[in-house]
């Protein structure tokens, strides 16, 4: 599709909130683990942490040459509260704008002849797509299933739609697969192609 769907991409302030919140809950987390959570390079995490230390949001405690504890300070806790309030205020606006984008996206699919589809990814984007379809019955698209690589989610349901393993695609004849996740969406598309799925039937929500 043509749109970049910027409303779903994590902002610097949201990343800051996520880091501070994670450090408060898990002081002994590693920079590499943080990089996986936020899907950014370890070098960027290091820069973020250095910045937060200078601003007085965190303090480092070196337990050994390889183990660092990150303690969030009272200033850091207040900063996290402020970020959380700003995030909550913006969330409803962003959600409404996201619904407009999703509706436009789905209507484009209808115009291109798609009817029965699978989603790849059972996160926020998938949930908004399903809710949009549930509320707007004029959009003639049916989601047959949701592919997710997380084995803990496979076998469960999201809004009554089954969450499946990628190997189960053959059990769900479809017109296309919507890659409904920002994280690793390019890698997911490439993996689908490698597994023999028609690249013309892969629909990326994010470009």
TrEMBL record:
It comes from the Bacteria. This is Putative transcriptional regulator. Pfam families: HTH_24. Signal peptide: none annotated.
């Amino acid at each position: 599709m043509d749109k970049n769907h910027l409303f779903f991409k994590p902002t610097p302030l949201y990343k800051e909130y996520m880091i501070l919140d994670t450090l408060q809950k898990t002081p002994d987390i590693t920079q590499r683990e943080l990089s996986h959570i936020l899907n950014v390079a370890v070098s960027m995490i290091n820069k973020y942490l250095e910045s937060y230390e200078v601003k007085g949001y965190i303090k480092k405690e070196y337990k050994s040459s390889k183990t660092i504890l990150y303690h969030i300070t009272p200033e850091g806790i207040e900063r996290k509260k402020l970020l959380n309030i700003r995030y909550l205020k913006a969330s409803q606006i962003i959600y409404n704008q996201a619904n407009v984008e999703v509706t436009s996206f789905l209507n484009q699919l209808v115009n291109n002849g798609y009817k029965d589809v699978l989603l790849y990814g059972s996160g926020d984007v998938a949930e908004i797509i399903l809710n949009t379809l549930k509320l707007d019955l004029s959009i003639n698209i049916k989601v047959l299933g949701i592919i997710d690589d997380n084995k803990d989610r496979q076998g469960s349901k999201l809004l009554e739609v089954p969450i499946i393993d990628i190997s189960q695609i053959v059990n769900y004849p479809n017109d296309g697969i919507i890659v409904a996740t920002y994280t690793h969406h390019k890698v997911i598309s490439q993996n689908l192609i490698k597994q023999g799925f028609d690249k013309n039937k892969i629909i990326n929500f994010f470009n």
